[in-house]
Amino acid sequence: MKTDPSALVRVTGIVVATVLLQVSGVGSIELLGGNFDLIPIAIAAIAYCAGSVPGAVTGFAAGILLDLMVGREVGASALPLIALGYFVGRYRELRDPAHGLTPVAVVAVSTAIYLVAVAAVAFMLGLDALISLLVVRDLILTVFLNSLLALPLFWLIGRTLRPSLHIDPFVRRRRRGRPIESGPIGLRGLEV
Predict the structure, then answer these.
(1) 147: closest CA among 65, 53, 34?
(2) Residue 180 lies in a domain
(3) Which are the contacts of 168, defined by CB distance < 8 A and separation ≥ 6?
(4) 0.85 cut: is pTM over it?
(5) Domain count of the chain?
(6) What pLDDT does residue 9 have?
(7) What is the C-alpha to C-alpha distance for residues 62 and 39, in angstroms, rounded to an integer?
(8) Is the pLDDT of residue 55 over 60?
(9) CATH no. for residue 26?
């Protein structure tokens, strides 16, 4: 990711808009008994497009902003989001996207890991955490609902970040070049 002011403004706008939407109303909309959670989708999309370090920094900023706006212990969301941003970005750096539906799998896994990690951090900090089978049902429904939002939000965030990126994450690169046409083995380099 480029280190110019426009990249910082774009990422900051995405993070602030996502946290405001999540806190102000999207988090309370119930569909099929579950809730949408835009935070792991946005962090996964930014990390997938920009890389591991911008993903981790964005995860930290979004987590601190979310904790301050909700009134939780500071760091309860930031710690899981740092790890989420780093590992999604690292996955993208190591693997070339093989399929157009890769964002759906990335969002499903990252949402599940984020929700389990937030619950674990809340439990370790001694916050009021309810543990029952309903939590597992809510986790599964949230993963399903976030997977439905994965493609449109990845597309929107990718289009927003595209001018600030060194490499376009949505263009598939060839793994190897075309084979070189050559003559018989003994006559290579003789220009016959």
Answers:
(1) 34
(2) no
(3) 162
(4) no
(5) 1
(6) 85
(7) 8
(8) yes
(9) 1.10.1760.20
